Amino acid sequence: MRLSRRITGIIQGGSDGWDVYYRANRLSDEGLDITHLTIGEHDIGTDRSILDAMHEATLAGHTGYSAFNGKIGLRERVAQRVSERTGLPTTPDNVLVVPGGQAGLFATHHAACDEGDTALYIDPYYATYPGTIRSVGARPLAIPARPDRMFQPDPADIAPHAAGASSLLINSPNNPTGVNYSRDTLMGIARLCQDHGLWLISDEVYDTQLWHGQHVSPRTLPGMEAQTLVIGSLSKSHAMTGSRIGWVVGPEEAIEHMGNLATHTTYGVAGFVQEAACFALDRGPDFEAMIAAPFRRRRDLVLRLLEAQNTVRPIPADGAMYVMLDIRATGLSGEDFANRLLDTHHVAVMPGESFGQAAAGHVRVALTVDDERLAQAVGKLVALAQELTA
């Protein structure tokens, strides 16, 4: 039987960018001691108090159908959090609860794009972005952010592709680069979106992991509230990756229609997970800072380890749980270097090419193991790069 072109074309054949990750897992299964620095998974579990709240909500009967657009109590808490963090008044009618940030990406592109529309996104990008755009029937078009600009997008590079496009997807603090987009960058992007009538989709799941500068949500910029859709999640801020709980914030009309989409796709998020999310948000910013603290410490550790050499150059890591490293001096692609590092030193990192071509010749290091093991792994990475350069 024939499958639809839409579903068979999500990744368009070939690699989905996760080859090194899959191979590292197979080697672990075979008994090798692999240091996994690939995916953004916390090395702590979800806090016991949140799990207890989830368990209590289950026993209390929050196991049936829930409101498809999210429980009012959770939408109120998200609206309050967004209002407090951004200074822009936000109501529950501006909030849709979704099963994680990935579902938010799917919903927002459904809201912004018709079949065959062009949807822009910045390269380097999180690996699911182009496939998500294809899954809603739109045409993904990557706009490179250049290494010589430290991967800050240049609105002048976006402008030639904006005419006729429907949306632009950005992510700051950025995965994979760790770059925090500056206010000037975002102001330029906002003007471009206004000039061309683009929906701006802003993936802000790393907004609590910021080490340098100020996080600016483009929804707060002049004139942008009506054409910005913001994706948030508890995955990174509260170490709740497996709970699959997030939200979209946007204009009331868009949120209402995405609620209709939720009714016909996810049918809502489990009530006991939403109750646990309410409890988690009630823990406040100090709890979020505690979850983020190890990644800031490890980011500083990696940068210190790299100070004594100039073969491997770090991209300024302003935020998120990663450091992007420039290994072009070795003469290898990011993919070849990552495979060599895995084979010779049993350290798994993600090739820059997994996140688009703008990051070719780079590798991404996830700061997701304890400090000592991370330091050893970075030492092995540098040693291999120096060996190849020599």
TrEMBL record:
Stored CDD domains: AAT_like
UniProt EC number: 2.6.1.-
UniProt keyword annotation of Cell wall biogenesis/degradation present: no
Broad EC category: transferase
Keywords: Aminotransferase, Pyridoxal phosphate, Pyruvate, Transferase
Cofactor: pyridoxal 5'-phosphate
Family annotation (PROSITE patterns): AA_TRANSFER_CLASS_1 (PS00105)
GO biological processes: amino acid metabolic process
GO molecular function: L-aspartate:2-oxoglutarate aminotransferase activity; pyridoxal phosphate binding
InterPro entries assigned to the protein according to its UniProt record, in alphabetical order: Aminotransferase_I/II_large, AspAT/PAT-like, NHTrfase_class1_PyrdxlP-BS, PyrdxlP-dep_Trfase, PyrdxlP-dep_Trfase_major
Alphabetical list of Pfam families matching this protein: Aminotran_1_2 (PF00155)
UniProt key word Transferase: yes
Aminotransferase class I/classII large domain location: 34-381
Catalyzed reactions: L-aspartate + 2-oxoglutarate = oxaloacetate + L-glutamate
Similarity remark: Belongs to the class-I pyridoxal-phosphate-dependent aminotransferase family.
Protein name (database record): Aminotransferase
Organism for this UniProt entry: Roseovarius halotolerans
Taxonomic lineage: Bacteria, Pseudomonadati, Pseudomonadota, Alphaproteobacteria, Rhodobacterales
Gene name, Swiss-Prot/TrEMBL: aruH
